[in-house]
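Provenance

Sequences were taken from public entries as deposited. Structures were produced by running a predictor on each sequence independently, with no templates supplied. The record for 2-oxo acid dehydrogenase subunit E2 from Eiseniibacteriota bacterium is shown for reference.
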Amino acid sequence: VEGLKTYPYLNASVMDENIVFKKDINLGVAVALEDGKGLIVPVIHNAEEKNLFGLAKSVNDLAHRARNKKLTPDDVQQGTFSITNPGVYGGLMGTPIINQPQVAILGVGTIEKRPVVVNDAIAIRHRSYFALSYDHRLVDGAMAELFMAHVKAFLEAGNIQ
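Predicted structure for 2-oxo acid dehydrogenase subunit E2:
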């Protein structure tokens, strides 16, 4: 959410030949259906108004209702940016596909302990690979990398409230 506030082009859409910036951040969260018959992407509306606990609660609620086929039409509409997690099945990374008319989607790989260099010493830290797919009509590689660097810095700083 913080990255989308800083880089609003990733929270926009292209309609005909116009760029439409979205005032709300409505996060689509890909949920694998338990019957193995694909994914559904319910939406956390007004995600910018929620703290981490509120987002986690919303994700859990939407995932539960999705798997029990209890979503309403409103639950799957008006997404402005999506997140998918191939890591839930142990995948390190994947190539997420944009949910049109959105212009970007973030894929989050599995979180696992890995050796990293910290202050010239090797330490064990939790790490994950992220993959961002984006529509080049609106977002170029430089903006995408700045967004990813912002997300990385935010997560590593531990400013999650």
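The mean pLDDT is 92.
The domain at 2-157 is CATH 3.30.559.10 (Chloramphenicol Acetyltransferase).
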